[in-house]
Amino acid sequence: MLTPFPDGRAPIAAGCRHSIGRRIDGTVLTAGNGAAGECSVAGWSDVVAVAVGNVHAFSNTGKSHTLGLRADGTVLATGWNTHGQCNVGDWANVRAIAAGWRISLGVTADGHVVATGRAAEGQIAVDEWEQVRSVACGDWHSLGLQAAGRVLAAGNNRAGQLNVHAWQDVVQVAAGYQHSLGLTADGRVIAAGAKASGVREVTAWDSIAQVAAGSHHSVGLARTGTVAAAGSNAYGQCNTQEWRDIVAVAAGAQHTLGLRADGTVLATGANDHGQCDVHGWADLA
Questions:
Q1: φ, ψ at 184 (rounded to 5°)
Q2: Spatial separation of the C-alpha atoms in residues 107 and 96, rounded to whole Å
Q3: Could you give the CA distance from residue 144 to residue 133 in angstroms, rounded to a whole number?
Q4: What phi and psi, each to the nearest 5 degrees, are found at residue 202?
Q5: Cβ of 183: how many Cβ atoms within 10 Å?
Q6: pTM higher than 0.90 for the full model?
Q7: CA–CA separation, 65 vs 77, rounded Å?
């Protein structure tokens, strides 16, 4: 049976026009368009987790940023920084990270959350959050998973993506453009937000080990190593039915990544920027 990666230790990440992967030796691989510097990770080392900002693909939002959590609890950042989303140089004792559209979040060892970036929609109003074990970022909203299995939310609630306060026994959260996903301890998926993102379909899934949220699609990694997907499939981002031996998944704006047990990566969906050109990747973990 599949054993999920620990909270905050994501080995792959997918954005609007690029993909990121963490290798066993702590270095980082990239694929896709790095015009804003989001792929400038050549000097990174001792990285234990990666995160990528920007989960939707509107014509005015192609720029993005990339985060890397190092083993010593510090955080690296590169890419688009117009709103200060890369200003993480003074963060310390961080154990989990997340990146959204123009925002970055980090969970510290004492369960508090640090944030930087755009604040206009209230998505970084997380100063009072406590006992948090992991976080997730959408476009205009943020989620925090508490140690007790409850979920906190902040930001825009236009599609009801913040309606998560009644959720219980949650072990992982994911946030997309206007939807939120929660994975319960018994392998069920709960969801809130935009219906077109597959939030109704995912409630029928079971025996799930990890969830991921893209711009308008949702992905679930089953404990058997297979992958389910729902929502928009306009670019083939939900064509994961044939995947096997997957140990981690990531959902970008219009593409999906799957890390195989042998350290290689599968990709499906939009590839207009080369974000799915990951077939030569190896030794990821």
A1: -90, 165
A2: 5
A3: 8
A4: -70, -20
A5: 25
A6: yes
A7: 7
